Amino acid sequence: MTADARRPLAVFDLDNTLADTAHRQHFLQARPRNWDAFFAAAPQDPPIAEGVALALESAEECEVVYLTGRPERCRRDTLAWLAAHGLPEGRVHMRGNADRRPARFTKLEILRRLARTREVRVLVDDDELVCEDAERAGFTVVRARWATPSAELKVAQEREGRT
């Protein structure tokens, strides 16, 4: 077993934890919601300093892993965004393109899978329902409360299973 394989994991959400989505929220306010435009604008997300600093600090002791509700079709843009903003390299877990389950279900499923073979030291996420479910399952959670909450994004995460 390599030294990296023994390091605990620090798991980070992306939207409104590391990436500020405020500039693209208007795509979710329209009816019908413009999901293609919402995700197409993600590469222009400014980084959130508090989240980036915590990811960099966590990388000193942990392997950083990213856990997002973004669909798999956004992988290339997501990887480019992480690299462009100097975030630690790490595996990126994304929902399947057709997966519409609430984020709290998809994320908890992946957290449990990760915890089968590695210590998950912390989950950092802005979604209160994800955080509550992760804590109930025994995970240590840091609530990313440094971005302005979005009611539209919350609905998208919980009811529409989109991010």
General description of the model:
The protein has 8 helices and 5 strands. By secondary structure, it is of the alpha/beta class. It has a single domain (3-158), classed as HAD superfamily/HAD-like (Rossmann fold, 3-Layer(aba) Sandwich). The protein has a 5-stranded parallel sheet, with helices on both faces. It is globular.
Give the CATH class: Alpha Beta
Largest sheet strand order: 3-2-1-4-5
Order of helices and strands: HEHHHEHEHEHEH
Percent strand: 15-25%
Please, how many helices? 8
Stated plainly, the CATH topology is called Rossmann fold
**What is the domain total for the residues?**
1
Question: Which shape, going by the Cα principal axes?
Answer: globular
Q: Write the CATH homologous superfamily.
A: HAD superfamily/HAD-like
Largest sheet: 5 strands, parallel
Termini Cα gap: 34 Å
Keywords:
8 helices; single chain; five-stranded parallel beta sheet; alpha/beta; 163 residues
Task: Summarize the structure in short.
With 163 residues, the protein is α/β, with parallel strands linked by helices. The protein has helices at 3-6, 26-29, 35-40, 49-58, 75-84, 103-115, 128-136, 151-158; strands at 9-12, 63-71, 92-95, 120-125, 141-143. Helix 7 (128-136) links the parallel strand 4 (120-125) and strand 5 (141-143).
What topology does this entry show?
Blueprint: H1 3-6, E1 9-12, H2 26-29, H3 35-40, H4 49-58, E2 63-71, H5 75-84, E3 92-95, H6 103-115, E4 120-125, H7 128-136, E5 141-143, H8 151-158
Parallel strand pairs: 1-2, 1-4, 2-3, 4-5
Helix pairs in contact: 6-7
